[in-house]
Design goal:
about 250 residues; Alpha-Beta Plaits; 3 domains; four-stranded antiparallel β-sheet; about 25% strand
Length: about 250
């Protein structure tokens, strides 16, 4: 389990996810709009839209809200035009940070993200400075008590899955970005529950933060970025031992 995944798991267990629920819905709706604008409003022919719609449904976004977002994306209904942008930089201790945003004003968002890096001990970087350290992948989460690892492997291997990892209460199935839908469908068609399926950025190497001071410095920046209204997702290549995470959380 990556340090970043561990951190989000701990925050969720402590109830921090409930505080962010309003922002989560807003981000999911924007993702649907942007996907529909880029590739059309039919999930059957727009793979990105299909993924974003399913992601929104996984988080209990109402279907009519999703459909309105699609219509705004295709121009059938008026709305603010959002675009996807990303920013790169470093947290303290040389941790690479990749920030995905959805914004209606990239100049404002860029300036504010840069300021967050500066205020929290990080440094803003030029495009391409850290993105090479991450690879876009699909991730499907499956309840651990729903299926054994061996049976899950048999289900997903032919569909294109690359790896299965034990994440405590869940199995994490990693796929190429293009095979996310096929792997998820293979699991669901076998009658096995899926907690979520999403596209993510997985680091090729990690920076170990073994002490509380270093962990606090990095997590302060990550939290500040995630709290920004325009930020869709933050990826970082840190790894923090569980006992340190529990101490600083």
């Amino acid at each position: 389990m990556s340090g970043h995944s561990k951190w989000h798991s701990i925050k969720h267990k402590k109830g921090a996810a409930d505080k962010a629920r309003g922002k989560l819905f807003a981000v999911l709706i924007r993702q649907v709009e942007v996907a529909a604008r880029a590739g059309g409003g039919d999930p059957e022919t727009n793979a990105t839209l299909r993924t974003m719609v399913q992601k929104a449904r996984d988080s209990s976004v109402p279907l009519d809200t999703i459909q309105r977002a699609i219509r705004r994306g295709t121009g059938e209904e008026e709305g603010v035009v959002y675009e996807a942008v990303h920013y790169e930089g470093y947290a303290p201790n040389g941790v690479a940070v990749y920030v995905q945003c959805l914004t209606d004003n990239r100049n404002r968002t860029g300036a504010e993200v840069k300021n967050l890096f500066s205020k929290n001990g990080g440094s803003f970087a030029e495009p391409g400075a850290v993105s090479w350290q991450f690879e876009r992948k699909g991730v499907v989460m499956v309840p651990r008590d729903a299926i054994s690892e061996d049976d899950l492997m048999l289900l997903v291997a032919d569909a294109g899955a690359e790896d299965i990892a034990d994440e405590g209460d869940e199995w994490q199935v990693t796929t190429p970005a293009t095979e996310l839908h096929a792997v998820r469908s293979a699991i669901e068609e076998a009658g096995v529950a899926v907690t979520s399926g999403d596209l993510t950025m997985i680091p090729s190497t990690t920076v170990n933060l073994a002490d509380e001071s270093s962990a606090k410095q990095v997590l302060r920046l990550i939290d500040a970025l995630e709290d920004h209204d325009d930020v869709e997702a933050v990826y970082a290549n840190f790894d923090i031992p569980v006992h340190v995470l529990e101490a600083v959380s």
